[in-house]
C-alpha cells in the first residue's frame, strides 16, 4: 500500500512539473513535458492497479482466514464431544443402555464429520476446476420426481407438504444427473429446514429460452435482506454468532452454486414474500 502511495505521489509531482514549465519551449522540451505527463499517467495507472491488487490480495487472505477459522470450529466442536463420549465409555463410567446411546452418538458425530470433510473436498475440487463428470441428456421431470419422492418422508416428519409441479412435456438438460440431484437435495433440505409445520415446499422444472430452469420454493421464514448476497458463501449460516443456524455447516448452497456454475448455469435467489425461492438454470439437452 505504501509503495502504491509513493508511486501516486511521484505521478502527481511529474504532472505538476509538466504544467508549471514556462511558455517558450523548444520541441525537445515539449517532448520532455509530454514524456513526464505520459510517465505520470502510467505511474498513476500502475498505482491504481497496485492498490487494487493489494486490496484483492487482502480480501483473499481474509477469506482464507475465515475459512480456516470456520473449518477449525466445525471440526473442534464435534471432536470435543467425541473425546468426552469415548473417554466415558473407556473409563467404564457408563454402562448398559447409556453406553449404547453414547456409542450411537459417536456414530452420529463420525458420520457428520465425514460428511463435512466430503463436502469440503468436493467444493475445493470443483473450485479448482477438477471436474471429471460425464455429462449426458437428463430428463429433469424424472430426476425431480425421484428426488421429491426420496425427501417426502423427512418433509412429512416436520409436517411440511412437499410437491413437484412439472409440465406435461419433457424437460431435457445437458447435465450430470448425480450432481444435479445433489443440488436438488441441498435446496429441498434447506427449504424443509426453514419451513414451519403446515408450510409447503414446491419444486418446479421447465424449459426456458436459454435452456431449462428449476426452482425450489418454500413458504417458510425467508432470507433476511442483508443475508441474500452471502448465503452462497461457504460456511455462511443465517444469523450472527449464537443465532447462526446450528443445523448445518453452511456448505450446501456454496456446493450447489459450484455445481451449477460448473454446468455453465446460474443460481440465484428470486424475490419471494413470504418464503424463499431459489432458482437455477442448466443448458438444454439436445
Ligand atoms: N430455504 C431457506 N429459507 C431460509 N433460509 C435459508 C434457506 N436456505 C438457506 N437459508 C439460509 O442460508 C444459510 C446457508 O445455507 P446452506 O445450505 O449453504 O448451509 P446450511 O443449510 O446452514 O448447512 P448445510 O447445507 O451445509 O447443511 C442457512 O444457514 C440459512 O440461514
Ligand atoms: Mg443447507
Instruction: Compute the average pLDDT.
Output: 85
Query: Which kinds of small molecule does this entry bind, naming each only once?
Result: adenosine-5'-triphosphate, magnesium ion
Strand content: 5-15%
Which radius of gyration do the C-alpha atoms yield?
28 Å
The domain count comes to 3
CATH topology of the largest domain: Heat Shock Protein 90
Query: Ranges with pLDDT <50 over ≥5 residues?
Result: 1-24
Major pleated sheet = 5 strands, mixed
Please describe what this structure looks like.
With 286 residues, the chain is α+β, with helices and mostly antiparallel strands. It has three domains: 2-59; 71-127; 136-282, Heat Shock Protein 90 (2-Layer Sandwich). The protein has helices spanning 2-20, 27-91, 96-127, 140-157, 177-193, 252-262, and strands spanning 136-139, 161-165, 172-175, 200-208, 211-218, 267-270, 276-282. It has a five-stranded mixed beta sheet. It has a two-stranded antiparallel ribbon with strand order 1-3. Strand 4 (200-208) and strand 5 form a beta hairpin. The longest helix is centred in the N-terminal third of the chain and has 65 residues, at 27-91. The radius of gyration is 28 Å and the shape is globular. It starts with a helix and ends with a strand. Residues 1-24 have low confidence and may be disordered. The chain binds adenosine-5'-triphosphate (ATP) and magnesium ion. Magnesium ion binds at residues 186, 189-190, 248, 252.
Amino acid at each position: 500500500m505504501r509503495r502504491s502511495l509513493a508511486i501516486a505521489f511521484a505521478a502527481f509531482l511529474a504532472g505538476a512539473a509538466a504544467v508549471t514549465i514556462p511558455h517558450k519551449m523548444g520541441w525537445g522540451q515539449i517532448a520532455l513535458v509530454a514524456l513526464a505527463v505520459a510517465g505520470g499517467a502510467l505511474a498513476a495507472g500502475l498505482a491504481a492497479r497496485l492498490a487494487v491488487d493489494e486490496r484483492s490480495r487482502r480480501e483473499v487472505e481474509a477469506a482464507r482466514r475465515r475459512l480456516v477459522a470456520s473449518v477449525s470450529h466445525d471440526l473442534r466442536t464435534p471432536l470435543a464431544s467425541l473425546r468426552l463420549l469415548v473417554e466415558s465409555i473407556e473409563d467404564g463410567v457408563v454402562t448398559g443402555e447409556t453406553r449404547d446411546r453414547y456409542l450411537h452418538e459417536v456414530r452420529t458425530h463420525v458420520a457428520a464429520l465425514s460428511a463435512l470433510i466430503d463436502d469440503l473436498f468436493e467444493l475445493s475440487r470443483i473450485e479448482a476446476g477438477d471436474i471429471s463428470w460425464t455429462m449426458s441428456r437428463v430428463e429433469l421431470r424424472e430426476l425431480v420426481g425421484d428426488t421429491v419422492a426420496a425427501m417426502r418422508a423427512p418433509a412429512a416428519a416436520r409436517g411440511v407438504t412437499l410437491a413437484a409441479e412439472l409440465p406435461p412435456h419433457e424437460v431435457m438438460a445437458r447435465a450430470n444427473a448425480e450432481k444435479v440431484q445433489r443440488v436438488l437435495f441441498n435446496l429441498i433440505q434447506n427449504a424443509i429446514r426453514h419451513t414451519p409445520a403446515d408450510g409447503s415446499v414446491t419444486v418446479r422444472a421447465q424449459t426456458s429460452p436459454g435452456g431449462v430452469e428449476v426452482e425450489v420454493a418454500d413458504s417458510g421464514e425467508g432470507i433476511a435482506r442483508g443475508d441474500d448476497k452471502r448465503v452462497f458463501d461457504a460456511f455462511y449460516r443465517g444469523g450472527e454468532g449464537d443465532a447462526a443456524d446450528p443445523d448445518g455447516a453452511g456448505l450446501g448452497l456454496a456446493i450447489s452454486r459450484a455445481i451449477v456454475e460448473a454446468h455453465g448455469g446460474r443460481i440465484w435467489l428470486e424475490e419471494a414474500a413470504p418464503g424463499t425461492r431459489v432458482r437455477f438454470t442448466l443448458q438444454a439437452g439436445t
